[in-house]
Specification:
This protein is an alpha/beta fold and 357 residues long. The strands form three sheets. A six-stranded mixed β-sheet has the order 9-8-10-7-6-11, sandwiched between helices. A three-stranded antiparallel β-sheet has the order 3-5-4, with no helix packed on it. The protein has a two-stranded antiparallel sheet with strand order 1-2. The longest helix is centred in the last third of the chain and has 23 residues. It is globular and about 70 Å long.
């Protein structure tokens, strides 16, 4: 029989309890008379027998019960055990590991907007995070909260030269935007000073907030706070200013196309987000990559700028971590990992094979 270490802790002295953290494919068996408390992400089944005699049938249960002391017969025949399993038991997480004799580097795909109900995280993510001495994010999240950066964002996001949303869009495009905003209970005048790219970034966030999503519950922010509490070293792959420039440097036509694409997808945004989050939770990298690719298939230049080029820029930093001697975890948007031009494939081409956990 293959066995491995079970994660558990006995708490208390006189009145003791045991806390067990099941891994994927791991089952915990408890007596029917025991009190069981389940966290989110754990399900239970009530079974006859002792939980390990799969398919033995009712007579087998009676036979096994007879072999035990009479005080155990009742529990053996009638709902003896609770079996607790993770509801992610057959899935993998959106997490990969590159390991050698010196260290491990974990690659974690992030969802920037999540709900409070999306926690707790998969145990594999927490284990990888806690093992890592260094946590690498796309940008330094502390610097993004400074007054200086906020002023920079405002200066880049809004027109200050006499232009407006109306003058920057073609009349048909402006009408589409105005009609969609009116349909959503807003007016286009509310956003007249927004640059098209800025409005394209704002509308999905507003839409997701309607159903409980927020940046504060996003994986990046959650792990950044956890890194601060645990005094872990943090690094950034790029600056916030660079991220803003990716959008602000788009041509007038590209910004209009991005905004129109966002407007067209608003009605299906909640459904798309649900599909992407489901793929993320189940570690379905290809599915998530295909969803993202399908969303931007009409805009290959924008996709190349926002995803592919940045992926290439990050590789030297990640390779340096791999060749170091400290465990590290790299947290980037989930769409950056899969695909032929994704981070995983780019590292594989350099000889670094990642194992999905």
């Amino acid at each position: 029989m293959n066995c491995h270490e079970v994660d558990y802790e006995i708490i208390g002295n006189d009145m003791q309890l045991v806390e067990v953290e099941p891994d994927r494919h791991e089952t915990v068996i408890a007596e029917a008379v025991a009190m069981n408390y389940l966290e989110v992400g754990i399900i239970f089944e009530a079974k006859m027998g002792y939980g390990s005699e799969a398919g033995e049938g009712l007579m087998g249960k009676f036979f096994n019960a007879g072999k035990r002391a009479m005080t155990h017969i009742y529990k053996a025949i009638f709902i003896l055990v609770f079996v607790l399993t993770s509801n992610f038991a057959t899935a993998k997480s959106f997490l990969w590991e590159i390991k050698d004799n010196n260290n491990s580097v974990f690659l974690l795909g992030s969802i920037h907007l999540l709900k409070e109900s999306d926690y707790p995280l998969d145990k594999a993510i927490i284990k990888a995070f806690d093992k890592s001495e260094t946590v690498v994010f796309e940008a330094d999240l502390n610097s993004l909260k400074t007054m200086e950066f906020q002023q920079y964002v405002l200066a880049k996001s809004f027109f200050t030269d006499g232009k407006s949303l109306k003058t920057s869009l073609s009349p048909p495009a402006y009408k589409k935007v105005a009609d969609k905003l009116k349909q959503s209970g807003m007016t286009v005048d509310m956003f007249n000073m927004f640059k098209p790219w800025s409005l394209a970034m704002t509308l999905p966030v507003l839409e997701m907030k309607k159903i409980g999503y927020s940046e504060e519950h996003g994986l990046d922010n959650f792990l950044f706070r956890r890194a601060s509490m645990k005094n872990k070293q943090t690094q950034a792959l790029e600056t916030g200013e660079f991220q803003i420039s990716l959008f602000d440097d788009l041509t007038k036509q590209q910004q209009q196309n991005l905004l129109l694409h966002t407007i067209e997808e608003l009605d299906s945004m909640q459904q798309l987000m649900g599909q992407m989050k489901s793929a993320w939770k189940n570690g379905e990298a290809k599915k998530l990559g295909d969803l993202n690719k399908s969303s931007y298939k009409q805009f290959p230049v924008i996709m190349d700028k926002l995803l592919n080029s940045r992926n290439k820029n990050w590789i030297p930093h990640i390779v340096k971590l791999i060749n170091g001697n400290k465990d590290a975890i790299v947290v980037v948007g989930a769409a950056h990992l899969p695909g032929n031009q994704g981070v995983l494939k780019l590292l594989e081409k350099k000889g670094y094979k990642a194992l999905q956990l």
